[in-house]
Amino acid sequence: MSYQLYRNTTLGNTLQESLDELIQCGQITPHLALKVLLQFDKAINNALANRVKTRLTFKAGHLSTYRFCDNVWTFVLKDVEFREVQELVKADKVKIVACDGKNLGAGRLLKAKQSHILNNLT
């Protein structure tokens, strides 16, 4: 099972809205929609792990909060600078969620989360 972090992106939200519409019209079942979302999770995690070669560095003025729970790190940084080659981007506040990419096949998601997703689709 892959991480579901990218479902909250523009692409992920649009996919979920489209699937919801197809369910409402009776063109697909909620079970099929869940299978599509699980495939999306797998594909996006695989693409980011294997296809993205861009590197960037960042520097934060202050680490506001941090947390480690269920093998997931969450950091809230303030006064952050991101640099990629010649481009510099500044942000007042950034939240970083970091997961171990090597544990993607470990099946970390509970059945309850899957049924919660399925219930939200109906």
UniProtKB/TrEMBL annotation:
Domain of life from the UniProt record: Eukaryota
Keywords from the named record: Nucleus, Transcription, Transcription regulation
Cellular localisation: Nucleus
InterPro entries tied to this protein: TFIIA_a-hlx, TFIIA_b-brl, TFIIA_gsu, TFIIA_gsu_C, TFIIA_gsu_N
GO annotation, cellular component aspect: transcription factor TFIIA complex
Pfam families: TFIIA_gamma_C (PF02751), TFIIA_gamma_N (PF02268)
Domain Transcription initiation factor IIA gamma subunit N-terminal residue range list: 2-48
One GO BP: transcription initiation at RNA polymerase II promoter
Major place of residence: nucleus
Transmembrane intervals: none
Domain Transcription initiation factor IIA gamma subunit C-terminal span(s) in chain numbering: 59-101
Keyword Nucleus on entry: yes
Family: Belongs to the TFIIA subunit 2 family.
Cited function: TFIIA is a component of the transcription machinery of RNA polymerase II and plays an important role in transcriptional activation.
Protein name from the UniProt record: Transcription initiation factor IIA subunit 2
